[in-house]
Design a protein that fits this description.
six-stranded antiparallel beta sheet, alpha+beta
Length: 250
């Protein structure tokens, strides 16, 4: 099983000028006003996921080019840096902008901290796509079956980035959805209602945990209201209402 992300550093990405040695726990809640950088923080994980799967240039192009990815543009921020640590293993990179609007690797490095000290291995520089995927099946030092590249790649490749930024009246999450659309949770939350309904019916303990975690971010929240549409039993509406508590839960 891949290690979870314990600590990260982001330098020069969109509205994030510098976020150094940010420690993460099993559950992390970011709260702030519009424009504070919450969405950009989430979108960086999507960029990293694309990066290790050798889709960096496509991801940068979709974002609007290198200038759009760098804090205040390349004159203010000539490079974008990221450092990620998964227990004893780590992955670091630095990306610089080209005149063609690309981001290319100034450096790509793996990191390992063991009983006998720290070791950094430079993968290379000047390449347009990450090389860590090409090295993920190589053995580790001292005859180990897997190296740092394997553990880092496995950790990041298993991420799924859910970003529910569209909550307008026409958002997919508010539309009716087939009640059996619950095999996997979609990244834009369009099947949130049937997915929650399935958990509610099949695993009450997990449902209660989801409800209680929601209360940590919104203490006034009591519970979801999940009711199939009476005229169409195969459908469930996406407008998930919530019972509001008079006082925070104890």
């Amino acid at each position: 099983m891949a290690n979870t992300l314990k600590k990260l550093t982001i330098e020069g990405f969109k509205s994030i000028k510098s976020l150094k040695d940010f420690e993460l726990g099993p559950l992390n809640v970011l709260i702030g006003p519009n424009g504070a950088g919450k969405s950009n923080f989430v979108s960086f994980f999507r960029l990293l996921h694309d990066l290790i799967h050798q889709r960096l240039q496509l991801a940068v192009s979709v974002e609007g080019g290198a200038d759009a990815c760098l804090f205040m543009g390349p004159k203010e921020t000539p490079k974008l840096e990221g450092r990620f640590y998964f227990g004893a293993n780590g992955y670091e990179f630095s990306l610089v902008a080209t005149p063609a609007g690309k981001l290319v690797f100034e450096s790509e490095v793996t990191y390992f901290k063991g009983n006998f000290g720290e070791n950094r291995a430079r993968i290379g520089s000047g390449h347009e796509e990450a090389r860590i995927q090409d090295l993920k099946d190589t053995g580790g030092n001292s005859g180990a079956a897997s190296g740092v590249e394997h553990y880092v790649f496995e950790a990041i490749s298993n991420w799924v980035v859910y970003h529910f930024h569209d909550t307008s009246v026409n958002a997919a999450v508010r539309r009716p959805r087939a009640i059996n659309d619950n095999f996997a949770f979609r990244q834009n939350a369009e099947n949130l209602a049937p997915f929650l309904f399935k958990i509610f019916e099949s695993d009450q303990d997990s449902y209660n945990e989801i409800r209680d975690i929601t209360r940590l971010a919104a203490p006034f929240f009591d519970d979801f209201i999940l009711r199939p549409m009476t005229a169409q039993n195969e459908m469930i509406h996406r407008e998930l209402s919530a019972i509001v508590r008079d006082s925070p839960p104890r």
